[in-house]
Design goal:
With 258 residues, this protein is an alpha/beta fold. Helices cover 36% and strands 21% of the residues. Helix 2 (62-73) packs across helix 8 (226-241).
């Protein structure tokens, strides 16, 4: 889904250096007190979003349901810290949160800073356009006004294609630009695109498998926190095997398209 920016990566590296200077007895990133605190960015439906009646307080979505079940299966209570996406790995490094579940894509860059769980979802990037758009492939974006979401994989893809673009912090803001005719295309993750197209008349999804590779979402924990990682992996692998995650994905994606 989302790829940390170079600026955020630098801040993360500095934060990790600072965290090494704190008291050695503070095992940041390990769940304590019966609460498992997940960091997220609740601007990515159907994976995480704010609702009037969420599965964890006001937070709802595929990831939130998974987080709750992981905590409960380990005798804990799930808590959510909602923050900017680029702040999540910094908060994890500093011990503000125990894990990150935010539709986060496993990348080589991130693997240098954190440990990832078994992947639980495979996604790809797509283009949201107006129904009468002449964009039929990624190559057609060359002379168009493109919107992306800051830090998401879509931004990285567009950068690598060499196209200029405008980045927004929220998907709703980028899609609103498209609805209002202020841009031609929004590049974003497939499941989230379905949500926005379902919520806004006159939009459609354009896929281009040759331009956008698949990516895997996983839960991040502080590097070396094998105890928590093992607990998370055990829960995820069981839910993948029994179909729970597939059912949750289908449920929220279907609801987002209504």
């Amino acid at each position: 889904m989302k790829k940390v920016t170079k600026a955020a990566a630098l801040v993360l590296a500095m934060a990790m250096m600072m965290s090494m200077l704190v008291a050695c007895g503070n095992d940041a990133g390990a769940a304590t007190g019966g609460t498992l605190t997940f960091g997220t960015n609740a601007e990515f439906p159907p994976f995480e979003f704010v609702a009037s009646n969420g599965v964890i307080d006001q937070y709802d979505g595929i990831d939130m349901a998974i987080a709750k079940q992981i905590a409960e299966e380990n005798g804990m209570t799930a808590a959510i810290e909602n923050m900017e996406f680029d702040s999540l790995l910094i908060a994890l490094s500093n011990g503000q949160i125990d894990a990150v579940i935010a539709g986060m894509t496993v990348t080589e860059e991130r693997l240098e800073a954190v440990d990832f769980s078994t992947p639980y979802y495979t996604a790809t990037q797509v283009m949201i356009v107006k129904e009468d758009s002449d964009i039929a492939s990624a190559a057609d974006m060359a002379d168009k006004k493109i919107c992306v979401i800051q830090g998401y994989t879509g931004e990285t893809c567009v950068q690598e294609m060499g196209y200029s673009y405008e980045a927004f912090k929220k998907g709703t803001e980028a899609v609103l630009e498209l609805v209002n005719g202020k841009c031609d295309v929004v590049v974003i993750d497939s499941a989230t695109a379905q949500k926005y197209v379902g919520d806004n008349e006159g939009l459609k999804i354009v896929e281009d498998a040759s331009a956008f590779e698949s990516e895997e979402y996983a839960i991040a924990v502080k590097k070396g926190n094998t105890e928590l990682l093992d607990k998370i992996n055990k829960a995820i692998e069981a839910k993948l095997a029994d179909g729970t995650i597939s059912e949750l994905s289908a449920k929220y994606i279907d609801e987002s398209g209504e």
